[in-house]
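Contributing: when you submit paired examples, paste them exactly as shown. First protein:
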Amino acid sequence: MPRSIWNGAIAFGAVTVPVKVFGALEDRSIHFHEVHVKDGGGIEHRLVSSDSGREVKREKVVKGYEVGNGKWVVLSNDEIKAADQPERKAVEIEDFVPGEQIDPVYYDKPYNLAPQRGAEQAYALLNAALVKTGRVGVGRVVLRTKEQVVVIRPAGDGLLRMHTMHATDEIVSGDDLDVPKPRKKAAKREVDMAGKLVDGLVADFDPKRYKDTYRKRVLDLVKRKAEGKEIEIEEPEAPEPSDDLMAALQASLDASPKSNGRGGGSKRKKGKR
């Protein structure tokens, strides 16, 4: 069993549910090292002053916040800690809100929650209540000295999951984008055909179907390179919008496995609509 990174509780009203917090992600990304091409030695990154170009010792480096053009306020670690909230050993739920009202863009890092010994019944009760009401708990907790807004939600199979949340001012509004309007409104026939194409690709979500193909391709490339094989680099063609949207929709429908039994493609399990 993995080791918990934080022990505390979920608190709402007069109810307290002692829990343990576990990381819900495992880093499986490809990590490259910088090496000297001549001798294979590792590359170090040193602290250098941008003004003098000279190397600076770590103990001579302080944390500063720019308050004006070239003006800095220097803060010590102890002074920064003065801004910390008192450590909360509980996730203090402030509201229960409908889960579908939270845009996924607000979700940040996920954590799995497990009940501490003796809290199994209260943990299961909270999970059941959230599932029945379709709501999630929004509250605050201090993780690694920083207060964060978090969401507690059911994650299936009796598991509760906690997500740290992005602040509202961190979210870039779509209103800031210059999205040009189409020259004309989509015709009813086009919308109907696009809807049929979507229906033809309906499936229940299975995360095992969506694997990290990039990681596999990079590892295959590294293997071929280690074997002394030549690596051919091909520039992918830039996608272009369809000249004839109706023809593209019809061709897609003809290739769909649900279009009168015609076409190819893998069979998908129809999901709930």
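Second protein:
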Amino acid sequence: MMEYIIVCVVALGVSGLTLFSGFGLGTVLMPAFALFFPVQVAVAATAVVHLANNLFKTALVGRKADWSVVAKFALPGAAAAVLGAILLTLFASLPPVTSYRLGGKTHEIALVKMVVGLLIIGFAFLDLLPRFENLAFDRKYLPIGGLLSGFFGGLSGIQGALRSAFLIKIGLEKESFIGTGTVAAVIVDVARLFVYGLSFYTTKFAPVSPDVSGLVLAATLAAFVGSFIGTRLMKKVTLRTIQMIVGVMLIVVGAGMASGLF
């Protein structure tokens, strides 16, 4: 029951905030899943919720998307997402890097947890450090941004921060920026879920239990509600204090995963 409460509250809150405040649903939701399930299952489960939520948001704001930007950004992103997802399945199949004893317990440091944990920490710092607050890139770098965002999305489920950095300063109106980012995210999600799906069927990922399926459904519904509320409140919101709290929590979770404590 606790996993349902935590994951659904995160999905509800973050799915609304991500529409206009720069928060990424996958960035926060994936660690919430990872507290209860293997990290590779957490990434795949987050991808399902992320895709379903973005399809819902596309119905709400997708008509405002700039399709020329979508093509330049999302198509390279989809190809890179496939590569990132393949690497995730490879890392998940490797034995632990090392192990150690702490507090009378043996903790194993798995490569997949270490990689994803370090990425969580890195992206959390992007939100926390003021020097990265206004990170943005010129329109000519859209294909590179798509590659980077898609690759890290496929590998760790975290892509929102990079996507926003490459789309925020290319001259899109607010509604067009939201619609474009949403459509791009759908394309990347479909690409990486294809690889995750194949991986489940070839048993490289841990089997999906009914508990995971039920939690994915509950989180998806919570995310829908959050997105619907967010569209009713579509204005610039400053949530720096909450952003700081979430960033610190992500660093703690990422450090725990990378070190084998979680």
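If you have annotations for the second protein, write them as plain sentences, like these:
The first helix runs from residue 2 to 17.
The chain has ten helices and two strands.
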